[in-house]
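Notebook entry, structure prediction.
Reason for the run: the old model in the group folder had no record of what sequence produced it. Starting over properly, with the input documented here first.
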Amino acid sequence: MSGRVNATFAVTKVRLDEYGEVIQVDTRGDTVAGEEPLEIRVGGQTLTTTMRTPGHDVELAHGFLHSEGHIEKASDVTEARYCAGASVDGRNPFNLLDVELANPHAISLADLRLTTTTSACGVCGTSSIEALMKQSRYSIPQVPVDPGIVAKLPGALKAEQKQFRKTGGIHAAGAFTLEGEPVVVREDVGRHNAADKVIGHLLMEGMLPASDLILVMSSRASFELVNKAAMAGFGMLVAVSAASSLAVETARETGMALVGFARGDRFNLYSGSLVTR
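New structure, fully documented this time:
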């Protein structure tokens, strides 16, 4: 893998007193999260370009293709390789990933999104719950929400966020057991990319559907994240920030438990049922 997971810049840090007056100016090196484009090609044709943090790109491609409904299992991908060697049109060859499918006709030209998505966008083109319900391969399990488990998930995710500790500016996604133990955690500047990396890892390890796992996100819960979780068969999504209206509607329609604002001793339950003791 070539590309910067993070980078260091000279940054001027300014401190103010309670009256708004400058009391300290200090210039020092500061580490920030890396962000570079990844062009995913299928059979030599561009499917999408997304801004991501370099690393686990093959997992990202698998997760993206699965979330979009193009592949069902790891064997649907016969090869995923960088366009390594000399630069391509002046671009870093490690920012171009070419995927070959077992069925070369699985994606038609009509499916190709010849546009650049941002690190925050994801599957914004998929705008209806009905489309998700038609695409979903797995039934969503009913996972009761255990408050004790939910309470420890944000801290357990944060404990695995190595790049966040260095940069303070990167999202994380993690698959956890129903007992709250981490299975895989991935980081990326894009929350949807982090989710795709986790789902791609599970797909490549033969662990889908994720009916016995919880997807935990360091970000807000948006429609595209609920969509990805549903496509992978998760029964619960836990986010440390807010949930959007369409995310809530989608979770309720699919039967997925959805938790937001998970902050230690408190959380919001948008969908699903609590464990009663």
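Summary: The radius of gyration is 20 Å.
The old model has been moved to the deprecated folder.
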